[in-house]
Amino acid sequence: xxxxxxxxxxxxxxxxxxxxxxxxxxxxxxxxxxxxxxxxxxxxxxxxxxxxxxxxxxxxxxxxxxxxxxxxxxxxxxxxxxxxxxxxxxxxxxxxxxxxxxxxxxxxxxxxxxxxxxxxxxxxxxxxxxxxxxxxxxxxxxxxxxxxxxxxxxxxxxxxxxxxxxxxxxxxxxxxxxxxxxxxxxxxxxxxxxxxxxxxxxxxxxxxxxxxxxxxxxxxxxxxxxxxxxxxxxxxxxxxxxxxxxxxxxxxxxxxxxxxxxxxxxxxxxxxxxxxxxxxxxxxxxxxxxxxxxxxxxxxxxxxxxxxxxxxxxxxxxxxxxxxxxxxxxxxxxxxxxx
Length: 339
Ligand SMILES: Nc1ncnc2c1ncn2[C@@H]1O[C@H](COP(=O)(O)OP(=O)(O)O)[C@@H](O)[C@H]1O
Ligand SMILES: [Mg+2]
Known about the structure:
By secondary structure, the chain is an alpha+beta fold. The chain folds into two domains: 6-226, Rossmann fold; 236-338, CATH 2.40.50.100. It contains eight helices and 20 strands. The strands form four sheets. Strands 6-7-8-3-9-10 form a six-stranded mixed β-sheet, with helices on both faces.
């Protein structure tokens, strides 16, 4: 299974007055793992369905391996799909679910191949179980095995982890990445969960209202968001009042480089909580408002005058930052976007 290139060119799809896809362009490299990230309703599923041939675009083209497949029906597009959940045939065992799509290859061979796929996804021991005898995470592993069994040219995953609990979600997410790296199938993974997208993908495409706002490596999406929407959607940001001075913006007394120039003087700067430093200081201007324990890193909210600031701190610092503590707030001089 080697990956093929996928290109979406100028896809448009409207439902009544809704522009589900609004001139969407996306180019995926052979073997690449792309996460399509965006809020609910931004057109992720529609994009995936148009690529799969389950939905027709009003205009635009879909190319797979350089070939125009726009007019081909879904069953001739050679794609493996995994949906949110509950997509297995309830009356078939895990093994039979996986071998189902392989019937053309002859039964003996398809069973051997199905067994191999269950091994790949780490649940060979459950081959004879029915879906109701499997956990949600195990069922999604079977669905993944079934999608990969046909050696698809493209693997499409639509929020495959969103019905699972947090721990299983993280485990299976890492497994999906491991398996995809092993088989090398070009993959489009749709999610509204930014942490998930940043964790698994080679590149993340951030979508908004049927368009791609930015397509870049996870670190670039996070550190140099192309638009305020990306900055706000990916990772929590403080919205702090600032004053533009040349190529910088002054926020809470610190000058920060701007990601893109601004012609407005009074602005709202988007500052990451991890860029906010908090130090207890008797005559500090800030006051700790609340603290919340979140594991090794915790969250502290501070008021500075009438500005509310959220900071991330190492949890062992919480005892010195109880509500009411006067603090000094300073910002790390990392480039920021403006809202
Ligand atoms: N079959 C449909 N009929 C009417 N509206 C639809 C249909 N499918 C999607 N939409 C609308 O298109 C927009 C994009 O939907 P969708 O692609 O499912 O978004 P996402 O997967 O990002 O949540 C939404 O406003 C949705 O309500
Ligand atoms: Mg969707």
